């Protein structure tokens, strides 16, 4: 699948292929930011990011020839995180063990509260500014489906922001 991306973005990604260390420096902060938006458990973020980079290192000869290696990296990381989360859910004996009271506040907590597909799509599109075609490729869905997930997430987040603002105004009035 060939995606339409502004020339600067393509050249920036191509520059990350000069060496694996350059690839790592370019993508690791973006990958960990994306993963943090997906889960409140920081241990998973670091582990999944490292495992994804190890997989990239193992396939470096193939990735060097890829047009968009970032898509491959994010797809691997997304799949890995889903598997880790599923395994954790199987190991939980109650819902209380799954809920972390310190999940964070504000927008990040709201993003983490979204359904999985919406959370993934909005993080890729709005936080990391991937083009919609890349979001669809990473999530392995069609472009219209990816756009639907992003739009639903945006609507839900807008509603949460309005609710927080209304509560804040109510507290000030009291």
TrEMBL record:
Keywords: DNA-binding, Sigma factor, Transcription, Transcription regulation. It comes from the Bacteria. Residues 107-157 form the RNA polymerase sigma factor 70 region 4 type domain. It holds the Pfam family Sigma70_r4_2. InterPro entries: RNA_pol_sigma-70-like, RNA_pol_sigma70_r4_t2, RNA_pol_sigma_r2, RNA_pol_sigma_r3/r4-like, WH-like_DNA-bd_sf. The keyword RNA-binding does not apply. The keyword Amino-acid biosynthesis does not apply. Belongs to the sigma-70 factor family. ECF subfamily. This is Sigma factor-like helix-turn-helix DNA-binding protein. The lineage of its organism: Bacteria, Bacillati, Actinomycetota, Actinomycetes, Streptosporangiales.
